[in-house]
C-alpha cells in the first residue's frame, strides 16, 4: 500500500486524495511523502499563491475588506512550525463568518482554512506564513501597543476601495444600533454607527477613510467613533449596513 501511495504522490496526487483512496490518516501519507523525498534527496519548497511573492494579481476589494477585519479582530501567528492568520467573528452573525472566510479564500486561495467556535466567537484560520507578506503590520505584542501605519501600496488599495475597508472595520470592531430619545412626550428612534478600538492609529485610519467618502463622524472618547447624522447614516447603510 505504501509503495502504491508513493507512486500516486510522485504523480502529483494530493495527500488528501491519497489518504481517502486508501482509507488511511492524512498524516501517514504526509510522512510517507516526507520519507520518500528524503530518500531521494529532494528538497521541498511549499507552493504558494502569495501575490507579493509570485506576482499573482491581488483581488483588491477583497483585500481591503480583509485588511479591515485584520486590523479590528485579527492577528497572525508566525512561529517555526505554526503559521496562520486568524480572524474572530461573533458566532451570532453567520453571514459575517462566511464573508470573512470568503475574503481569505479570494485573497489567498491555496491555504487550508478552518473554523473553531469558542466562547460565542468563531475563529477563522488560514494556514500559511505568507500572510505576513500581505499584512506588514504584523509584529510582537498587541496592535494598540505598537505603531500601525499602512504601506503605500496598502493605502493605494484603501483609497481605491474605501467602502470595503470601512465595512471590514465595522464588521470587526463596529456596530449599527438604534438609539432613542423622548421629545415633547414622544419617543423617537434613530440609527447610529459606532466603531470602537484601543489603537489611536487604527481610529485615525478609520476616520480618515470616512472623511474621504463624505461621512461625518464624531469621536465620543479616545476609543469610540460615532456616526449619527442622518445623511452619513444613510451612506453607511447603503455601503455597509448592519452585521448579519
Architecture blueprint of SSEs:
Elements: H1 2-10, H2 15-22, H3 26-40, H4 51-54, H5 60-73, E1 74-79, E2 82-90, H6 94-107, E3 112-118, E4 121-127, H7 131-134, H8 152-160, H9 162-173, E5 174-183, E6 186-196, H10 200-213, E7 218-219, E8 224-227, H11 230-239
Antiparallel strand pairs: 1-2, 2-4, 3-4, 5-6, 6-8, 7-8
Can you give me a brief rundown of this structure?
The chain has helices spanning 2-10, 15-22, 26-40, 51-54, 60-73, 94-107, 131-134, 152-160, 162-173, 200-213, 230-239, and strands at residues 74-79, 82-90, 112-118, 121-127, 174-183, 186-196, 218-219, 224-227.
Q: How large is the count of helical segments?
A: 11
Q: Considering DSSP H and I runs of 4 or more, what fraction of the residues is helical? A: 40-55%
**CATH fold node name of the largest domain:** Endonuclease I-creI
Structural class per helix/strand content? alpha+beta
- Unreliable stretches covering 5 or more consecutive residues: none
User: Globular, elongated, flat, extended or rod-shaped: what is the shape?
Assistant: elongated
Amino acid at each position: 500500500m505504501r509503495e502504491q501511495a508513493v507512486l500516486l504522490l510522485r504523480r502529483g496526487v494530493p495527500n488528501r486524495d491519497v489518504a481517502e483512496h486508501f482509507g488511511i490518516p492524512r498524516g501517514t501519507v504526509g510522512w510517507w511523502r516526507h520519507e520518500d523525498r528524503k530518500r531521494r534527496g529532494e528538497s521541498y519548497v511549499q507552493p504558494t499563491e502569495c501575490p507579493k511573492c509570485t506576482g499573482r494579481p491581488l483581488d483588491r476589494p477583497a483585500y481591503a475588506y480583509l485588511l479591515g477585519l485584520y486590523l479590528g479582530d485579527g492577528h497572525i501567528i508566525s512561529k517555526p512550525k505554526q503559521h496562520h492568520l486568524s480572524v474572530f467573528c461573533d458566532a451570532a452573525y453567520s453571514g459575517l463568518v462566511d464573508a470573512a472566510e470568503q475574503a481569505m479564500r479570494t485573497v489567498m486561495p491555496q491555504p487550508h482554512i478552518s473554523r473553531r467556535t469558542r466562547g460565542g466567537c468563531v475563529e477563522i484560520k488560514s494556514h500559511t506564513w505568507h500572510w505576513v507578506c500581505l499584512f506588514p503590520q504584523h509584529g510582537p505584542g498587541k496592535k494598540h501597543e505598537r505603531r500601525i501605519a499602512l504601506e503605500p501600496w496598502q493605502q493605494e488599495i484603501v483609497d481605491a476601495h474605501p467602502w470595503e475597508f470601512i465595512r471590514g472595520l465595522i464588521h470587526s470592531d463596529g456596530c449599527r444600533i438604534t438609539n432613542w430619545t423622548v421629545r415633547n412626550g414622544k419617543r423617537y428612534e434613530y440609527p447610529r454607527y459606532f466603531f470602537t478600538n484601543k489603537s489611536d492609529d487604527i481610529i485615525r485610519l478609520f476616520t480618515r477613510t470616512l472623511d474621504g467618502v463624505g461621512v461625518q463622524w464624531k469621536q465620543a472618547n479616545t476609543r469610540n467613533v460615532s456616526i449619527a447624522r442622518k445623511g452619513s447614516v444613510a451612506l453607511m447603510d447603503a455601503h455597509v449596513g448592519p452585521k448579519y
